[in-house]
Amino acid sequence: MTMMTYWFRQILFITLTAFAFGKPFGIQSGQGILSSGIEEDGGSSFAGSMLYNAEHHVVFLTGSTYGSFWSLQDGARETAKSNCFVSILKLPEEGTQHNVTWLYADRLGTATEVDESCSSMVNIDSRKLYIGGSSEEGGLLSSLRHKGTKRATQYGVLLDLDVHLTSPSTPLLGGRLFHSTSVQSIRSVVAAPDGETIFVASEDSDVSVQNPSFPSTNGNLIKKKKYGSTSKDTFLRVSKLQRKPNVTVPSLNFTETFEPHLWTKEIEAAEVRVAGLELLSSGSLVLVGSILGENEEFAPSDMVGIKNDWDGFITQFDGTKGGILASYRIDASLGKDDIINGICRQKGQDKIFYVVGRTKGLADVDPVASSQSAFLARILIIEGDGITLDWTTQINTKQGGQNVGLRCAVTDDGRQVYVGGRTIDGAVIDHPSIVGPSHGGDDIWLGQIDTDSQNWNWLKQMGTSADEDLSDLQVDKYNNVLVFGDTSGNFQRHNKRSEKTDVFVMSLTRNGESINDQPSPVEEVLISNPPVTSPDYSTTSPTTS
């Protein structure tokens, strides 16, 4: 097959797929923005956070990169240090032949000097982005460190960017530097609709030694080197900030755009992991995550004995003063880990929440069938009555494999919940629709569950012989699910360098159809019955079109 024939077939395939389904689509980073647009990016990129905007039908993406794919500078190369990236992706409308389009992409950082990473963000009315992450001394916002304060090993950073969708750009105005302890890393950011009040949840430590491997939210180290970690002996910090009025930005520098903390709440334990933060219409906050060790005020345990395992927590804070209103601890069995990795809810719903994670003892599980299972739980938060567990369900694997639940997203009508996670080292989800064996490595899986019957409408497992991971899920205005993650394989295109990692964005329809269901000549992947192959095409390089 000639190269021209090959690309013609790929373009035809993408167009026909978009026309037939309106969606789904799939796209993978990795080919740089060099003038040829063909050269393979030599640096890895890792997915952080994704936000969907229904008015403009776009997604905002952020994460960490060592590569040149996201750079707007012609001739940019990969770096030895991690930078943040930010991007805007225009999605195809249903019933059209339009493809996904990069509206904007840029690499934010100091290139080769220090490590910087972005992991969470909030979008204000399509006009502002607040992005949380971490940075070493000498990073983008190090000039905002207050005079007389000591330098730290790792700062928390909150970036303040303007967004212009008509002529896409995201100029960085400044933000705030968090430097009260040796190591700080912002994990979750939420804001009031007007963008004036902001809450951040971070993992902090007075220990000045960083862990060079990025700890995943399930408490275990994953097989990637991704900057942005906190050390052990962490404590949790939740802070409320106010954006400064009438901010003016110096032409050659950044400015501090957020007032000092209005309040800060610290939670101490042996270790703490933040999984998500939600701001309710009442002004209160719901924080979820996992805790190792005791903290009676924060998440009291019903178990008697020495606590040396991880428990999930759901805690409601007073947004005005930072006091704890209610707390619930998922603590199924002494000595068995119950980890919360994500939280979701129906738009506008302040009482019903869903949390997703992994467990070794939350429900009745055959210990031979699964040593670690993903779970989804429905949580009720009633003002004055506290927090209660409504129901739980588990997603198990075959033959003792391990499985982690990572993210969830609720349809606009609240009738279905999309749930996603990762199987580990070739494990296969135990469901009649999924066939095996896996081709190896870690795979991602997606499912849709009915919230009334608690029955799965569909489940799919997707992956290559390399590793895939899932970082975020969003529901679009058609109630399709959008998936953001990273891959070391040929998941949505040919990855010519197996030692590096790309990010991908893909969608599945309400019925579970994906672009991976279509035949293509790359690599067979495990999905559902019958086995299918992943598509082979390269993304359009990001531009400022």
Walk me through what this model shows.
- With 545 residues, the protein is mainly beta.
- Helices cover 3% and strands 42% of the residues.
- The chain has one helix and 31 strands.
- It has one helix spanning 3-21, and strands at residues 26-28, 45-53, 58-65, 83-90, 101-108, 116-124, 128-135, 155-162, 172-178, 183-191, 197-205, 235-242, 255-256, 263-268, 271-279, 285-292, 310-317, 324-330, 338-344, 352-359, 373-382, 386-395, 402-410, 416-424, 443-450, 456-462, 468-475, 481-487, 502-508, 524-525, 532-533.
- Strands 6-7-8-9-13 form a five-stranded mixed sheet, with no helix packed on it. A four-stranded antiparallel sheet has the order 1-29-28-27, with no helix packed on it.
- A hairpin with a 4-residue loop joins strand 2 and strand 3.
Largest sheet, if any?
Answer: 5 strands, mixed
Total DSSP E strands:
31
Strand order of the largest sheet: 6-7-8-9-13
Radius of gyration: 22 Å
